[in-house]
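cache lookup: miss for this entity combination. No prior model stored, computing from scratch. Input as submitted by user K.M.:
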Amino acid sequence: MSERESLQPGHLTSGEQVECALLTGVAEGKIHDFDQLFHQYHDRLFRFVWRVTGSTDLVEEVTNDTMLAVWKQAAQFQFRSKVSTWIFGIAYRTALRALRKNKRHVQHRLEQDLDLLEAENHGDQTELRDLVEIALRRLSPEQRAIVELTYFMGCSYEEIAATLSCPVGTVKSRMFNVRKKLRPLLEQLT
Amino acid sequence: MSNNQRDSISMLLPWYVNESLTEQERKQVDAQLSADLVLNRELRQEQALAALIAQAQPEQISARLALSKLHASIRAERPLSVFRRLRHWIVGRPLAAIAACLALLTIGGLWLGLPTSPKTFETLSEPQPVIEAPVVLRVVFRQHVQAPQAAALAEKLGGRIVDGPSPNGVYTIAPRDGADPQRWLAKWRESPDLRFAELITP
């Protein structure tokens, strides 16, 4: 456990302390606490799962499966990591399982989406935002998870390693590969 | 600086942009940025990429609709949840489970061996039994409140700390007198030093 991941009350922000209290309530079967936790996480989880799966079809199912797992497994949470690390870790694994299960369908939809995006964006009218979207969709789900956790969620590489259950070195090398793949696009950003 | 050292600093740029590096790492990046034009360009690219990624928005579904669906799933799961949690608990802590079984067997054995007590009692009066479930407060103080201040605050608001802080900063407070629980809770919630308070039956 890294220094940044150790859970001491003094190290937690007030928001994180409230999340811990809510999760304690969820472990005791309090539906009201679960509802509050759900509202705190819904938008971030929805976005994270959308980014990892690259598919709007799977987002609702994976998000709900994640929160259902939180409800069922809250009593097992040992408070050795942040609540958010635990919840996004569940979401990540649930998303990867869903992708494996729906591999053919997701791949087909991804190609359709990419064709559509590329057809709509040609010549000088191409928007950088769409180019980024196309480039991100061509990354692996593992790489997209790191992109989202870093650039949108603002997580440290140690938090990402804990969320994805992989070594810090893997996080850094995956990010290195992401930047290598995005390099042609990055050149246009400056 | 060698190429390897420069590459390792370049690798940190995404986390330099999201401001999650340690102080020491940040200083290393700053030092290299002050003398490396290429790294400055990479930094600008990273910042632009982060901004573009943050702009992307998925189609949102109604959170209320999603929560309704979850409640239906939880209701369907509920009858099993006690057994499921018990199973998880036993699987996760086999030694504790064995100890609990032995304790139950011992208590059962003692109970069977005890002489039976009379089932009725005669008293001079017939007082109505008063059953009151004891309640305690579960609270989270604001970050600036340290343990001694928390104890003083509990004293001031008519309670005493009986447990905590837990690893997540939660205190359990018992009332000092027989105050009405709801009024007591309201009094606590008025305190500006408090972040969260709820009544629980231990």
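stored under new cache key. The two ends of chain B are 62 Å apart (CA to CA).
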